[in-house]
Amino acid sequence: MTLFVASTTAPVNIATLKYWGKRDKTLNLPTNSSISVTLSQEDLRTLTSVCTGPEITEDKLWLNGSEESLKSERTQNCLADLRKLRMKLEDEDSNLPKMSKWNVVIVSENNFPTAAGLASSAAGFAALVMAIAKLYELPDSLSEISKIARKGSGSACRSLLGGYVAWEMGEKADGSDSKAVQIAPMEHWPNMKAAILVVSASKKDTPSTSGMQLTVGTSDLFQHRIKDVVPHRFVEMKQAVLEKDWPTFAELTMKDSNSFHATCLDSFPPIFYMNDVSKGIIKLCHFINAFYNETIVAYTFDAGPNAVLYYLEENESKLFAFIYELFAEVPGWDSKFSKDELTQFLSDFDSKISNQLKVELDKELYKGVTKVILTHIGPGPQSTDECLIDTKTGLPK
Amino acid sequence: MTLFVASTTAPVNIATLKYWGKRDKTLNLPTNSSISVTLSQEDLRTLTSVCTGPEITEDKLWLNGSEESLKSERTQNCLADLRKLRMKLEDEDSNLPKMSKWNVVIVSENNFPTAAGLASSAAGFAALVMAIAKLYELPDSLSEISKIARKGSGSACRSLLGGYVAWEMGEKADGSDSKAVQIAPMEHWPNMKAAILVVSASKKDTPSTSGMQLTVGTSDLFQHRIKDVVPHRFVEMKQAVLEKDWPTFAELTMKDSNSFHATCLDSFPPIFYMNDVSKGIIKLCHFINAFYNETIVAYTFDAGPNAVLYYLEENESKLFAFIYELFAEVPGWDSKFSKDELTQFLSDFDSKISNQLKVELDKELYKGVTKVILTHIGPGPQSTDECLIDTKTGLPK
Questions:
Q1: pLDDT value at position B292?
Q2: Could you mention a single GO BP entry for this protein (chains A, B) (predicted)?
């Protein structure tokens, strides 16, 4: 069996300036530009292997061990775009194998639970598109490839790049200028870290596509957000990244998360993604920043109750004096810290924080949190030799 | 002892178009006009008795049995305004007793728990101002008197009138055109009823005055709300009242509650008045309206987690088939319904609602609700012979 194989990992990204609202649902064109931080693939990544060959009889997809449909319009759009670019190469060089005519097998695995609401579709589509681009040996830039990933899942375009990433909304109706660009590589401001508090959701949230459509169609405040609020914030946040201005970056991040959730609440019927635990974490973050009289932590919430806390490495012990004290019972700490380091956080808390202030903290908050994921800024998709496909059969290993 | 005594009751009002934001903190001038429904004093009222006389040695206030300070700037402003109007009368007619020079004793009692977050300050200031206006035999119109109550507590001005009430924000810097006017008396649309679900709040909310200031100062979406959203809604909601257009009135009421809470969430730090129980009640209301494919109920939330559900009397059995089923264990039902009527609600629920739909309801919601208060639209302040002051001593009975 003649088979061509390629494998890639792709990262999760968590927006600090939120994407909410589509001006074109098929092309996934947004109503505003957005900004995100790409997270390390050591902690959160999708690994995708793809193969193609004349004997592959149909397009197939396996996701975390189960076969899934490839029929969705979004996936079909991605595959069609990739094949078109490959065909261009084949037209220019008749020696190239005619991969654009062959079916593909895609096998994909996350190293984190898909159900946890951790932007898995962004990493998933980024990995799928990058793996096929690699298989096809496409010479196009990452920004160019990001437009294809965008058609799979809007925020996936930002996972094509590492570090600090902007998704420029563009203006054109065909989406040809709606793409991800790097604001700065991770090396520019490498000490950006993230602690994700995975919050238990009792019920399924409104899916983000239908949620966006509802907000665009019914929220009176939404038009103001996209026209007057976000454009300024986009400029300010890019500038804050370039200048490594943490207090500004942090404040804009928190404000934009709140603004996005405010337009969800202003939708009709209203959409609620944050719950009382999420709100308790927001209050805790403001409490911590007020306690130190310094911006230590910035929260942001996507379309679900999980909190992503951004902070700078040099403030880690100040932050975790509180966070470890309150969430010590939640799993996830020992993957990054030794027992001695964790004990130090506890004694920092005991020695530095007055008993009077301790009373104001919500000691029950940890009951609504199932896991802490400790990670940091990371690079874009990576080629890998790890392969999920059996090159003899073209099926998952 | 020469004593002059007067007693008045005043109602609670619950806004359907929310007052949030002051353009002048001392005069309580709002950043937008608002609309409310005045609720029946059978269920929720403040009773205030006042007395004055040359032998009363100082201004004094008793509230629900405890002596309270009268020193607050707001109360002092109310008293000064009332004395100024009285002095005008005395200047015109030298036979009148010189009440404007004498101290006053004020004794006030609510027939509902003050702590429940049920707009008690609105009823309280309305009763205080009306009782003194009666004592002073002021000839001024209720709208004129409402400007004095407004200085005590903004929304108190709306409690000076019965039925459907607008608080016109006015334009003048001295507040002389910021007053309550009646859109329509209760007799115009008498079948408006309200069920208040008192939700347990675990912690004290942000006081509304400081909350408003925070929103005005920090929310980017707020300016859009007051400039572009509320002015249209104000016209539309007045029209809906005049036309007794329930579906429009209900939708605007729900949207405006959500819009107000959205600007709270967009404040920095964000303010949260609704909790997960409040949100559960919102979802339930949308579920009920969707179930009947008809607008049965409209929710609204003030600066706290309590839900006020407005509905028309003719839809009561449709609404309570759900609400009694889910909140039967909460006290408050037997004050308005016989055992047979309540049993009928339960059997309506069992017979009409399919088992499949029942599964979607949150059966635990009642655990977050401490009380249901069933009431309806009502008139403005009422004179009463009931007196809380011992006319021999000038002290509370």
A1: 96
A2: sterol biosynthetic process
Say if A275 is an interface residue toward chain B (CB within 8 Å). Answer: yes
Per-residue confidence at A114, pLDDT binned at 50, 70, 90? low
Q: Where are the domains of chain A?
A: 4-184+382-396, 192-376
| Beta pairing, strands B382-383 & B29-30 | unpaired
Residues A384-389 have a mean pLDDT of 96
Distance of alpha carbon A151 from alpha carbon A26, whole angstroms: 7
DSSP secondary structure of A112-176: S-GGG-S-HHHHHHHHHHHHHHHHTT----HHHHHHHHHHH-GGGGGGGS-SEEEEE----TT-T
Return the SS3 of B355: helix
Q: Which of A228, A268, A276 sits opposite B258 (nearest CB)?
A: A268
Q: Which pLDDT score is estimated for B113?
A: 72
CB A342 within 8 A of CB A382: no
Distance from C-alpha of A381 to C-alpha of A161, rounded to nearest angstrom: 7
Inter-residue contact B15 to B254 (CB < 8 Å)? no
Q: In A, which residues are within 8 Å of B272 by CB distance?
A: 279
DSSP string, B259-289: HHHHHHHTSSS------HHHHHHHHHHHHHH
* A104 exposure class (CB count in 10 Å sphere: 0-12, 13-18, 19+): buried
| Relative orientation angle of helices A316-327 and A339-352, to the nearest 10 degrees | 90
Picking from A221, A255, A261, the nearest residue to B224 by CB comes out as A221
CA distance B25 to chain A (A): 25
Q: Does domain B4-184+380-396 have CATH number 3.40.190.10?
A: no
Q: How far apart are the first and last CA of chain B?
A: 16
Chain B contact for A261, CB < 8 A?
yes
Whether residue A117 has pLDDT greater than 80 = no
3-class SS of residue A105: strand
The residue of B17, B224, B284 whose CB has the most chain A CBs within 10 angstroms, and thus the best one to mutate to test that interface, is: B224
pLDDT number for residue B323: 97
A4-184+382-396 has CATH 3.30.230.10 classification: yes
At A7 the pLDDT is: 98
Looking at residue B65, what is its pLDDT?
92
Q: Are B36 and B19 in contact (CB under 8 A)?
A: no
DSSP string, A305-329: S-EEEEEEGGGHHHHHHHHHHHHTT
Closest by CA position to B295, among listed A263, A210, A268, A272 = A268
pLDDT band at B159 (very low <50, low <70, confident <90, very high): very high
CATH (residue range B192-376): 3.30.70.890
Task: Name the phi and psi angles at A91, rounded to 5.
Answer: -65, -35
Question: What's residue A116's pLDDT?
Answer: 61
pLDDT at residue A202, as a whole number: 63
**Mutation for B interface: A218, A220, A274, A289, most B CBs within 10 A:** A220
Is a pLDDT exceeding 90 seen at residue B374? yes
What's the pLDDT score for residue A217?
A: 96
- The token pair at A371 is 């896991």
The answer on pLDDT for A323 being more than 90 is: yes
CA dihedral (A291, A295, A296, A297) positive or negative: positive
For residue B61, is pLDDT > 90? Answer: yes
* Helices and strands of chain B, counted as H and E runs: 11, 18
A244 dihedral zone (left: phi>0; alpha: psi -120 to 50; beta): left
Question: For residues A189 and A207, what is the distance between their CA atoms, to the nearest angstrom?
Answer: 33
